[in-house]
């Protein structure tokens, strides 16, 4: 089941859709490590992004409703 929510980056004002609450990372090295929870989201331009869920939930993004208001 997909859970779709809309979010806005507070500083840039860019809007995104999040397709799942979190996913588990599987990687050997890097800023994202094996077992980290990540948020997968898509910009209006169609590009996909992955960010640690802790960063996504640290206040950089705000959830918005369908009308575009928080």
Total of DSSP H or I helical runs spanning 4+ residues: 1
Shape: globular
* Largest sheet, strands/sense/barrel: 6 strands, antiparallel
> β content, as a range?
35-45%
Q: How do the SSEs run, as a string of H and E? A: EEEEEHE
**Segments where pLDDT lies below 50 for 5+ residues?**
none
Query: How large, in whole angstroms, is the Cα Rg?
Result: 12 Å
Helix content: 10-25%
Number of strands: 6
Structural classification: mainly beta
How many domains comprise the coordinates?
1
> Average pLDDT across residues?
80
Question: What is the rounded distance between the termini?
Answer: 25 Å
What does this protein look like?
The chain has 70 residues and is mainly beta. The protein has one domain. Helix content is 11%, strand content 39%. The chain contains one helix and six strands. A hairpin with a 5-residue loop joins strand 1 (5-9) and strand 2 (15-18). The longest helix has 8 residues, at 53-60. The protein starts with a strand and ends in a 6-residue tail after the last strand. The mean pLDDT is 80.
């Amino acid at each position: 089941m997909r859970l779709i929510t809309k979010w806005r980056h507070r500083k840039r004002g860019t809007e995104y859709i999040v397709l799942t609450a979190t996913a588990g990372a599987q990687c050997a090295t890097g800023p994202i490590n094996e077992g980290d929870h990540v948020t997968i989201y898509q910009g209006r331009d169609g590009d996909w992004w992955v960010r640690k869920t802790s960063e996504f939930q640290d206040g950089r993004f705000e959830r918005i409703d369908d009308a575009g208001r928080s």
